[in-house]
Design a protein that fits this description.
This protein is mainly beta and 78 residues long. The chain has one helix at 14-22; strands spanning 27-32, 36-44, 48-53, 56-61, 65-70.
């Protein structure tokens, strides 16, 4: 019997990932394929970001991001 092992393939958009790292801890507006989220960009990972807004954390896959705008010119909120 031939066993097939499932594999997971994920592409990383290195330019978007590096750009988002530069504005981590900033207030941003993110347009996704499902809508817009405005809040604090708290975490940047190779495959997703976490945006805190209204007391909730939004886990957004980088592949679902259409555009991002830093609200305060990319300055970090301290």
């Amino acid at each position: 019997m031939n066993k097939q092992i499932p594999s997971f393939v994920s592409s990383i958009d290195t330019y978007v990932y590096q750009s988002l790292q530069g504005i981590e801890q900033s207030t941003i507006v993110v347009q996704t394929t499902m809508g817009t989220v405005t809040g604090l960009l708290t975490t940047v990972m190779p495959d997703h970001i976490i945006v805190e807004s209204g007391g909730s954390r939004f886990f957004i896959r980088i592949q679902q991001i259409v555009w991002v705008i830093p609200k305060n010119g990319g300055k970090r909120d301290v």
